[in-house]
């Protein structure tokens, strides 16, 4: 399955607030579709599927990428759900978004793909790059790159920068000071249901 490129607000109406996907809000209270106003109690499978869909759409992952990240998380000692979230939060595209250098993760991904981003003074064009404590994130020193990011800074996607990151808005230099803590994950979901979803499929 390829990355979703359809209407974003429609997805948010169904799954709830997805800060990484879009800043737009819908005034409609019911999920999209002809059955959106039905309030039938969802099954346990439907609940697990919904949490999985939240992660996929918020972080812009396809099924193969999400499965790969879950397998990686299972190999690390600790809570698989928390480690999965940390892996996704420390991706380069999400880190740029959380620094406020882009209003959404798709916008951050575009900055990376178009080679506007430097990590430790080297251009990195891989969105899934795992940022590490000590990494320095800079905007390429060109008029086009700087102008674009300064425009984004005036309309940040989220109000607060998480405590593992810091940004100098004058020099447009960000720093990674640690690994994200669970309380700073902006997406509201139960990550254990995502792990359960894939555990039951395997």
TrEMBL record:
This is Ribosomal protein S4. SMART domains: Ribosomal_S4, S4. HAMAP family: Ribosomal_uS4_B (MF_01306_B). It comes from the Eukaryota. Residues 23-42 are annotated as: Disordered. GO terms for cellular component: small ribosomal subunit. GO terms for molecular function: rRNA binding; structural constituent of ribosome. Belongs to the universal ribosomal protein uS4 family. CDD domains: S4. Pfam families: Ribosomal_S4 (PF00163), S4 (PF01479). Residues 3-89 form the Small ribosomal subunit protein uS4 N-terminal domain. Keywords: Plastid, Ribonucleoprotein, Ribosomal protein, RNA-binding, rRNA-binding.
């Amino acid at each position: 399955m390829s990355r979703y490129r359809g209407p974003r607000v429609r997805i948010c109406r169904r799954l709830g607030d997805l800060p990484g996907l879009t800043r737009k809000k819908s005034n409609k209270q019911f999920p999209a579709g002809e059955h959106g106003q039905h309030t039938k109690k969802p099954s346990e499978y439907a609940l697990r599927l919904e949490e999985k869909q939240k992660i996929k759409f918020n972080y812009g992952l396809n099924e193969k990428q999400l499965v790969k990240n879950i397998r990686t998380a299972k190999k690390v000692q600790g809570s698989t759900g928390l480690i999965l979230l940390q892996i996704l939060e420390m991706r380069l595209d999400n880190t740029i978004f959380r620094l406020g250098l882009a209003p959404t993760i798709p916008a951050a991904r575009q900055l990376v793909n178009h080679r506007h981003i430097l990590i430790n003074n080297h251009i990195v064009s891989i969105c899934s790059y795992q940022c590490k404590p000590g990494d320095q994130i800079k905007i390429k020193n060109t008029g086009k790159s700087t102008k674009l990011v300064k425009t984004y800074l005036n309309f940040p996607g989220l109000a607060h920068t998480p405590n593992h990151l810091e940004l100098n808005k004058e020099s447009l230099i960000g720093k990674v000071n640690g690994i994200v803590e669970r309380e700073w994950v902006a997406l509201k979901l139960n990550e254990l249901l995502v792990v359960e979803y894939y555990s039951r499929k395997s």
